[in-house]
Specification:
Helices cover 24% and strands 22% of the residues. By secondary structure, it is α+β, with helices and mostly antiparallel strands. It folds into 3 domains: 4-90, no CATH class; 101-196, Phosphorylase Kinase, domain 1, CATH 3.30.200.20; 212-342, Transferase(Phosphotransferase) domain 1 (Transferase(Phosphotransferase), domain 1), CATH 1.10.510.10. Strand 4 and strand 5 form a beta hairpin. The radius of gyration is 24 Å and the shape is globular. It catalyses: L-threonyl-[protein] + ATP = O-phospho-L-threonyl-[protein] + ADP + H(+); L-seryl-[protein] + ATP = O-phospho-L-seryl-[protein] + ADP + H(+). Its EC number is 2.7.11.1. It comes from Melanomma pulvis-pyrius CBS 109.77.
């Protein structure tokens, strides 16, 4: 089940007037990762001050009890519902023109599976389900199904890059294997992908013992990605590391923040720092550095600590881990390391994100200075796409709590 603290994502507060006037009507769009839909919460500036996301705990109290048709709820200054609306005009969800598989030549060598053939088994996190299917030989498979239902340009780009990166990676004993491209059933559009499911949970579980060989594997993997393939993962963290119960190898996954050479390279997110903070968190259980923006974190802060208080079972002394880490960091921080990354001999390449053919259909957006209809093309809201008769893939689903309460499970 999705963690309660990860279920909702607010897009912020929109004020129909001054935010300093407590009576100003305020709209807050909140995305529900469990039901995969947007709900607008309407109230006043008194209840919804800027940047506090009060709308999230308010919606969390009653989200499971709203009809699937509800697009907006109005609440009083105490956070209690006074009105619900099914009006499609209240739906600010952005339309996604998922790419037809026929137009994605870079993916044509991949195995595919239709969305209808995936059986939902659990909801692991935002945009990730545990799913099952029977392969061509009739053998049951368990996979993690990753998808992007949000039409933000940055998210669309990340989803495209991660899919192309994963299908291009050579097989590696420390990377969760890519499985299949997932296509919706009506028009065979690309809506996500699957990777092999590894049971047992991630290394942010402090009860999982940690071996010295696993930090060796992680540093070797980072060297391979950075210096051979020219890939910077940029999100090395305990939550993105697993231990394969069959091989007892450490496995890295979740490449949606990855950089390819200079493309998408972000300040403070290099993998060397990621490994330092990851090992520190694994050993000590201290997660305080995760709340610090990457560009403000200094890995020397933890490297120079006189003591790392151990709060996890280890197979070697803390000093053994730290000495190895420091020696590796010294090697990787040597002059010319960044150039070695940029000059990686086996750099992976893939095409840029294509423009969906759906976006070529013009739609009305206001009027010109002459009072004529202003016709534009490009991204649009879902309600606009509905008005234009465009095909829409709907992600909406019942809350998991209702499925479990009904006895059907997921």
């Amino acid at each position: 089940m999705i963690k309660p603290e990860e279920r909702f994502m607010s897009e912020g507060q929109g004020y129909l007037g001054s935010s300093e006037n407590p009576k100003t009507v305020t709209h807050c769009n909140v995305w529900d990762w469990d039901q995969l839909r947007m709900i607008k919460v309407i109230g006043t500036a008194k209840l919804f001050p800027p940047d506090e996301d009060v709308e999230v705990p308010i919606l969390a109290r009653f989200a499971d009890y709203l009809s699937p048709e509800v697009r907006a709820v109005t609440v009083d200054d105490g956070g209690l519902i006074t009105e619900v609306s099914n009006d499609p005009e209240q739906d600010d969800t952005y339309f996604i023109g998922y790419l037809p598989f026929s137009t994605t030549k870079s993916l044509h060598g991949c195995s595919v599976i239709q969305y209808s053939k995936l059986q939902e088994l659990d909801r692991l996190g935002p945009g990730v389900d545990l799913s099952g299917y029977d392969d061509e030989s009739g053998f049951p498979q368990k996979v993690a199904f990753k998808f992007n239902p949000i039409g933000k340009p940055r998210r669309l780009q990340m989803a495209w890059d991660e899919l192309n990166l994963l299908k291009s990676l050579p097989p590696h004993p420390n990377i969760v294997p890519f499985d299949r491209v997932v296509l919706e059933d009506v028009e065979s559009r690309v809506i996500g992908f699957t990777i092999k499911y590894i049971p047992g949970g991630t290394l942010d579980n402090s009860k999982q013992p940690f071996r010295f060989e696993w930090i060796q594997q992680l540093t070797q993997l980072v060297d391979f990605l950075n210096l051979d393939l020219g890939i910077m993962h940029q999100d090395v963290a305990p939550r993105n590391l697993l231990i394969d119960p069959d091989t007892q190898n450490l496995l890295l996954f979740d490449f949606d923040w990855a950089a390819n050479g200079e493309k998408n390279l972000l300040q403070g997110r290099d993998d060397i720092a990621g490994v330092v903070f990851t090992l520190y968190e694994i050993i000590t259980g201290d997660t305080s550095f995760t709340s610090i923006p990457h560009w403000d974190r200094n890995m020397e802060t933890v490297q120079n600590m006189s003591e790392w208080t151990c709060n996890r079972e280890l197979d070697s002394n803390v000093s053994t881990f730290r000495n190895f880490l420091n020696e590796w960091v010294t090697t990787r921080r040597s002059p010319g390391d960044m150039q070695r990354y940029l000059d990686a001999p086996n750099r992976l390449t893939w095409p840029g994100l294509p423009t969906p053919p759906d976006y070529s259909l013009p739609f009305e957006l206001g009027t010109t200075v002459d009072g004529e209809t202003n016709w534009v093309t490009g991204p649009r809201t879902r309600r606009t796409a509905v008005e234009k008769g465009q095909y829409i893939f709907h992600w909406e689903r019942p809350p998991q709590s209702r499925l479990k309460n009904s006895g059907n499970g997921v």
